[in-house]
Design goal:
Blueprint lengths: L7 E5 L2 E5 L6 H9 L5 E4 L1 H6 L15 H5 L3 E2 L2 E2 L10 H4 L4 E2 L8 E2 L9 H11 L5 E3 L10 H7 L5 E7 L5 H13 L4 E8 L5 H13 L4 E5 L18 H12 L1 H4 L7 E3 L5 E3 L1
Parallel strand pairs: 2-3, 4-7, 7-8, 8-9, 9-10, 10-11
Antiparallel strand pairs: 1-2, 5-6, 12-13
Length: 277
């Protein structure tokens, strides 16, 4: 159930369709478009945020299932989110929360905030997932909304992968409760996204990452990217250095190999080599 990385393109009737998920991929998308001898239609979150003057059309919607171009096993059952998180592009690209009446039944759920939907919708989603051997709530479930009822319903699925996000240290009580509630229901495959580099400090970020480890879960560090970033990993927040962000991202995203090395003894070179001391 792997994801295609980056830009998605396909042709139909001589027209080139381009979907651009991240703003830092727009220059690459423009090069692809200029090489096409025909009409170009561009879309995706990056185009909604910054536009695409090089495209002939940038429609709000398309008859194609663009998400399937990224991963044929992925689906949206709702779009949008009621939260207005400063670091998130969803309010600007998706708008308010809308539950879909129907959707492609697939095992990877990519909803922006599934738990903000009604209980009826959540129950319908769970029923649609019972036919699959593995399920993945890929974009994460809001730990602040997660409750025993959600956990019990998810536990009826075969091998569910539940993901939460730990965006700020103030969320610690909710993260603890969500993890304990999931485990009490028998859910064992848990992940936690940890936002780093956004209005925090290296010490704060390390605390949250290590906290997740103490909960016996490998954290997934998510380096903050400004919503309209032209280059990936170009932003370095106040109190951080590029080296600190690189070191923390590499270490905690590769704990499968590095967890025998304490973070304080970990040094990472951009060449990919590791040494201790």
């Amino acid at each position: 159930m792997s994801w295609k990385k980056g830009i998605s393109t396909w042709e139909a009737g001589g027209t080139l369709f381009i979907s651009v998920p991240f703003t830092w991929l727009l220059l690459e998308a423009e090069k692809i478009a200029l090489c096409h001898k025909g009409k170009v239609i561009a879309g995706g979150p990056a185009v909604k945020l910054l536009g695409a003057e090089w495209a002939d059309e940038t429609p709000e919607s398309t008859p194609y299932d663009v998400l399937s171009m990224q991963n044929p096993f992925a689906t949206f059952t709702s779009r949008g989110c009621p939260n207005k998180c400063e670091f998130c592009a969803v309010p600007k690209t998706e708008g308010d929360l809308i539950e879909r009446d129907s959707w492609k039944h697939a095992p990877i759920i990519c909803d922006n905030n599934l738990l903000a939907c009604t209980d009826r919708h959540f129950s319908r989603v769970i029923e649609s997932l019972k036919v699959f051997d593995d399920t993945d709530f890929n974009q994460g479930l809001d730990a602040r909304l997660f409750n025993k009822g959600h956990a019990q319903k998810i536990s009826k699925l075969r091998n569910p992968h539940v993901r939460f996000s730990f965006d700020h240290v103030s969320m610690e009580p909710e993260i603890i409760k969500a993890i304990e509630t999931a485990r009490a229901a028998g859910i064992r495959n848990l992940s936690v996204y940890v936002l780093i580099g956004f209005k925090d400090t290296p010490e704060d970020a390390e605390y949250r990452l290590e906290f997740v480890r103490k909960m016996k879960i490998r954290p997934n560090p998510m380096r903050y990217q400004p919503i309209r970033a032209i280059r990936k990993n170009d932003y370095v927040g106040q109190g951080w250095t590029e080296g600190q962000l690189l070191r923390m991202s590499k270490y905690y995203s590769r704990l499968r190999w590095y967890e025998h090395v304490p973070f304080q003894e970990f040094h990472y070179h951009e060449t990919g080599s590791l040494f201790q001391g």
